[in-house]
Amino acid sequence: MAYILVLYYSRHGATADMARQVARGVGEVAGMEARLRTVPAVSTVCEATADSVPPSGAPYAELDDLRHCAGLALGSPTRFGNMAAPLKYFLDGTSPLWLSGALAGKPAGVFTSTSSLHGGQEATLLSMMLPLLHQGMLVMGLPYAETDLLHTTSGGTPYGPSHLAGTGSDRPLDETERRLCQALGRRLAQTAAALAAGRSHP
User: Judging by beta carbons within 10 Å of its beta carbon (0-12, 13-18, 19+), is residue 171 exposed, middle or buried?
Assistant: First the structure.
């Protein structure tokens, strides 16, 4: 079955929760499934290596997960208005996919979590789009037809779902944030299915 790769890095769990909601939205589209994958932390010690299987949560991503996906949802916490280093490190190793054009023409979207409401959510989402554009992907946001964007007092942007985790990084996703994550998953899955069938995407 065709799948949307939901690839993320999460330190305190909020971005992982968002990834699961995106995957839930993907699963609502007939003929599509979600594949959850994460990336290991980057160590400041050059000799340090991570186990090949994380102690909990989604497996680590491999290039083949990207190569064979029908679409991509990319998620990261905010680091000074940019994506987290572990995700950037993984993306820096995707040159073989760029050289072969493996991701060109596939739909993609982004999502993020921040500790403060104005902690660089939109800048982070925009920074995450850049490597996807270089890969030739069809970058998608959320239209204002998702009316939660008009009423949210927490996370949510037209560039992609966002979440306000709070200064303790312990605030759970609220209903608006969950719905917007699910909307991104549905939108990516519907678009991938439409492209595969030769129809116009939404």
Answer: middle
